[in-house]
Amino acid sequence: MKRTNIYLDEGQSAALERVARTQGISRAELIRRLIDRSFGAPGAADLEADLDAIRDSFGIARDEDISFGRGSDERSRHLDRMAEL
Description:
Elements: H1 10-23, H2 27-39, H3 44-57, H4 74-84
Helix pairs in contact: 1-2
């Protein structure tokens, strides 16, 4: 890693501190993650390709009869009762 110094105003510094504390990470780690997200971390292209594949496949099995063979149990009886309300 390479050390870098930056100047932040009070609001920026406080926001970084608050979010880092909430996430349980250091301010430096938060800044690195924000930079990776902003500029595209390694693997970001893979994520986009994965999301495109998911979007392209949405609804592909809509005409298929997919049965999970779930029998009657307490959860399904509860859901049936809720549907009747």
